[in-house]
């Protein structure tokens, strides 16, 4: 998996290495799939990423960890599939962590989805009330949306 993760900015190259690895009988593990999903999300290969996430479960009987779910949320959020990403989180069999919700909040900021951002920020705040990141991002999101009256958070 390490070689694949080194080439993640070049998704096609990473996926070619992954394919070669499988062709040589090397069974991918959890780390390999994290690298493959990361390559897909950074290269905009949404369908390819979905396919590999499903393959991880069906073809290799691997149980995805929260890091794999965070990759998929980011994979969906980057091109603006925010509702799909949120529904994906709702169906997760593991508890979403800060990385999962943070990926969606970042995508909400990019696409200016204030309403979903508020919901996501509330989840982040529940997970770690001491962290200021969701509040700072919400201030930025409100400012970018021209919602100056919402910038003063309780």
Description:
The protein has 154 residues and is mainly α. It is built from nine helices and no strands. The longest helix is centred in the first third of the chain and has 14 residues, at 30-43. Residues 1-8 have low confidence and may be disordered.
Low-pLDDT ranges: 1-8
Question: How many distinct beta strands?
Answer: 0
Radius of gyration: 17 Å
| Mean pLDDT rating | 89
Write the H/E string, N to C. HHHHHHHHH
Helix content: 55-70%
Q: What amount of the residues lies in strands?
A: under 5%
Distance between the termini: 45 Å
Query: What structural category characterises the helix and strand content?
Result: mainly alpha
Q: Give the biggest sheet.
A: none
Shape: elongated
Q: Count helical runs.
A: 9
Summarize the structure.
The protein has 154 residues and is mostly helical. It contains nine helices and no strands.
List descriptors.
single chain, 154 residues, mainly alpha, 9 helices, 69% helix, elongated
Task: Give me the secondary-structure topology.
Elements: H1 2-6, H2 11-23, H3 30-43, H4 46-58, H5 66-77, H6 82-91, H7 98-111, H8 114-127, H9 133-144
Helix pairs in contact: 2-3, 3-4, 3-5, 4-5, 5-6, 5-7, 6-7, 7-8, 7-9, 8-9
